[in-house]
Write a structure and sequence with these properties.
- This protein is of the alpha+beta class.
- Among the domains are: 143 residues, Gyrase A, domain 2 (2-Layer Sandwich), CATH 3.30.1360.120; 86 residues, Elongation Factor Tu (Ef-tu), domain 3 (Beta Barrel).
- The protein is built from 9 helices and 21 strands.
- The strands form 5 sheets. It has a 6-stranded mixed sheet with strand order 10-11-12-9-3-15.
- A hairpin with a 5-residue loop joins strand 1 and strand 2.
- The chain is globular and about 60 Å long.
């Protein structure tokens, strides 16, 4: 895995780090998690995302080729459009999820950086006579995340073209920032406008200061000062849990089937398309509407937080498992969680129990997202 050029800059800023796989570290925080979280909700936040990687496909057959492998309607994409999809195994279980970004010249598959090598190898395995070339681009491309209510405004200060056209999920386009060509795509995962920047890896140390300088207390609408703050995983993770966004490797693994991912099933799977890897299992479950468990939100009683991996109970019967949890600032610092619950218990308002800090606490099944941003005005 390529080294992160920004790591020394994060160290200089006295960041703390979390391991992400055997040979990668991501920023946990810069020492002020509450202030970092506030930037997500009130202003603009910038996060280095070395945990994300890209596989690039070129060739005239690339959309038709991907359409036969992924769960969504890839073939209908036009340049500038994107779509979210799963790659399944032959048993219909989720191997990985991908953001598919289609351009005139190439189709980009953005996913967990630990899986880009395996994804490229899997695609090569299924290539026969198709005109498709596969490039695992971890050494060439890196990702930065810019989010918050004023993220679009900040981008407009530094880009050569407006970003208002990037409103639909995974809509994307090429822009120039500080003389550097980047791909920007929309990817709201935290209940706020969120833009992902795919950047030449060797230009990261040039682009990071450009963005920070643009957000150094500039004046926005109605003379409001908008400040950009660098954030780490802790603040981001809290915001994405409040929004009910599952993450691969945490909430989505190869233990689960697409239909079990609840609201994300409709986003990731086209039920009307033809054959693809694992399609028979998906079609059978869809036809019978039979699923053993469902991804759901949980409101936790009291102030004790059940951790990821905690089992959920009805008396002595195990009925599910927590996959993510946090103390929610937007809900008054009450504990909330997401996880999988047996279908019979996956009814809104259903009361079950979870282990938290050595004792059992009530957990109430609740819809996702766990927090709704109030409508403007």
């Amino acid at each position: 895995m390529p080294t992160n050029p920004l790591h020394p800059m994060h160290e200089q800023a006295e960041a703390s780090f979390l391991p992400y796989g055997p040979d990668l570290q991501i920023v946990e925080s810069y020492g002020e998690v509450e202030a970092e979280y506030a930037a997500i909700r009130k202003s603009a936040a910038l996060m280095d995302a070395p945990h994300r990687g890209v596989v690039v496909l070129t060739g005239k057959d690339r959309l038709a080729f991907l359409h036969k492998l992924l769960t969504n309607d890839i073939k209908s994409l036009s340049p500038g459009q994107g779509i979210y999809a799963y790659l399944l195994n032959t048993k219909g279980r989720i191997v990985m999820d991908v953001n598919v970004l289609h351009t005139d010249e190439a189709t980009l598959l953005e996913t967990d950086t630990r899986l880009t090598g395996a994804l490229a190898a899997q695609l090569e395995k299924y290539l026969f006579t198709e005109d498709v070339k596969v490039l695992e681009a971890a050494a060439q491309l890196a990702r930065l995340t810019l989010l918050g209510p004023h993220a679009a405004e900040l981008l407009c200060r530094v880009t050569d073209a407006p970003v208002a056209t990037l409103a639909a999920p995974l809509a994307h386009g090429r822009r120039t920032i500080g003389g550097l060509a980047v791909t920007i795509f929309r990817n709201d995962q935290c209940g706020e406008p969120q833009f992902e920047l795919l950047v030449p890896r060797d230009a990261l140390t040039r682009l990071w200061p450009v963005l920070q300088e643009a957000g150094a207390g500039h004046t926005g609408p109605a003379d409001n000062t908008i400040e950009l703050r660098a954030i780490g995983w802790s603040a981001y993770n809290t915001a994405r849990i409040e929004e009910g966004t599952p993450l691969l490797g945490i909430d989505i693994t190869d233990h689960y089937l697409p239909m079990e991912t609840g609201p994300w099933y409709a986003r990731a799977v086209c039920v009307n398309k033809g054959c693809y890897l694992g399609q028979e299992v998906v079609a059978r479950m869809h036809a019978h509407r039979s699923v053993a468990r469902m991804f759901a939100g949980l409101r936790i009683g009291g102030q004790k937080l059940p951790l990821a991996g905690t089992e959920l109970f009805d008396g002595t019967t195990v009925v599910g498992m927590v996959t993510s949890s946090c103390m929610s600032p937007m809900l008054g610092y009450v504990p909330v969680a997401m996880g999988y619950v047996k279908t019979a218990y996956a009814t809104v308002g259903k009361q079950i129990e979870a282990l938290a800090e050595g004792s059992r606490v009530l957990a109430s099944v609740t819809p996702l997202p766990l927090w709704h941003k109030p409508a403007a005005g």
